[in-house]
Amino acid sequence: MKNRKLLMIPGPIEFTPEVLRAMGMATTSHVAPNFIEVFGQALERLRQVFLCPSGQPFVIAGSGTLAMDTAAANLIEPGDKALVVNTGYFSDRFAAILERYGATVTQVRAPAIGDAPALEEVEAALKGDGYKLMTVTHVDTSTAVGADVKGLAALGREYGALVVVDGVCAVAGEEMRQEEWGIDLALTASQKAIGVPPGLALVVAGPRALDAFHNRQIPVGSYCSDWTKWLPIMEGYESRQPRYFGTPAVNLIWALNVSLGQILDEGMDARFARHRRLSEAFKAAITALGMKQVPVAPDKTATTLTASYYPDGVDRTVLGYIKEAGVILAGGLHPDIKTRYFRIGHMGAVSPSDILATVGAIEQGLAQVGYEFEAGAGLAAAQAVLRP
Ligand SMILES: *Cc1c(COP(=O)(O)O)cnc(C)c1O
Questions:
Q1: CA 130 vs CA 9, 50, 82, 133, 151: distances in Å
Q2: What is the value of pTM for the model shown?
């Protein structure tokens, strides 16, 4: 019997066997001809996955927070004004990073946890002041709120702000069309919907973001995040002429290229549609089991994860029973409601059978803590969506 548990958290996620095999290969030199080809191809593929043909990809060893740091370090100069569209924990983090590089930050906050600021409110803020940059968290992993990135990016463009999207829990799962939607910089980390073990910060900067970087008056305040160092490296590998700044994460980049190939084989539109369908099935199950989600309305909800309040009389001990039933889920993250809800990631290589296994394990866990519900109701609701 297989006794490995299913990891259904909002990153790290379950990785494909092909990706994991690439991680286990003998490590080559970072200037070996076959690695140069792999790195160059991964950069080309990133443009396709971000749907940004005119973008400049950056692949740097680090986590998603480093990708956020890189965006702020290269685009912000002390005294610049930045607007943060705040939907939760990771929006707070972006505000803190921007401030660290000297930005004056204004935040438009959601009216309640699980909600997102209205477009009109963001527009009113943009009208009021000359912002150099605005940030949007595509999917706030603390609340499962999905922002209207398309609408917000159009507003940012209209008022002349660079549009920066934290897509760490979104890129390659949630629909995002960087170039078409006018997003100047989008970023993610390897361990979420991109489907590679933790360790890579991924950024695609569009032409306006690169112009803002080239027009800086003051040097970038971080040695390790400075595009002055990284741009020649990325351009070098893409033209198959390696250059050195810091040793690239060879096996992770190998695995990234495998995963990006699998993503593009599926096709971006098919991938977005699969995430929508699996999310709908899972959320139908949660509702059928009598649980309420953190996002206040279905149109505010991400497709890469679900955040659900525990039912009355149930607390996080249920997560232990769900784990015993074979599925690992995540607890709460947003400090105000941390003990009252849990989170389920369903992104990347996730399949209908993963959804059913997870719903089944949740039903077992709920039964063990004495919660009363109609056995099988969650599974039936998910099946009703998944049935061809
Ligand atoms: C996970 C996450 C981050 C942070 O990424 P790390 O890899 O943990 O540094 C940032 N933003 C969002 C939206 C995330 O989901």
A1: 39, 28, 9, 9, 19
A2: 0.97
**309 and 334 in contact (C-beta within 8 Å)?**
no
The SS3 assignment for 348 reads coil
**Mean pLDDT along residues 126-134:** 94
Ligand 1 probe mutation, 13, 90, 343, most atoms within 8 A of CB:
90
* pLDDT confidence bin for 3, thresholds 50/70/90: confident
Q: Measured from the CA of 169, which atom of ligand 1 is nearest?
A: 15
Opening angle at CA 249, ends 75 and 93, nearest 5: 40
Average pLDDT of the chain to the nearest whole number: 97
Q: How far is the CA of 172 from the centre of ligand 1 (A)?
A: 15
Contact 108, 116 (CB under 8 A): no
Nearest alpha carbon to residue 92 among 306, 339, 336, 331: 336
Q: Mean pLDDT across the stretch 329-336? A: 96
- For residue 2, give the nearest of 320, 326, 321 by alpha carbon: 326
Q: Domains in the chain, ordered, with CATH?
A: 6-11+267-386 (3.90.1150.10), 17-266 (3.40.640.10)
Taking alpha carbons only, the member of 82, 86, 58 closest to residue 186 is 58
Atom in ligand 1 nearest the alpha carbon of residue 191: 7
Q: Which stretches of the chain are DSSP H helices?
A: 17-23, 33-49, 64-75, 89-100, 119-128, 149-158, 207-214, 227-238, 250-266, 268-288, 317-324, 352-368, 377-386
The reported pLDDT for the residue numbered 65 is: 98
Q: Which amino acid is at 99?
A: E
Structure tokens belonging to residue 242: 């390696």
Torsion over CA: 245, 247, 249, 250 (sign)? positive
The Å distance, Cα 135 to ligand 1 centre, comes to 14
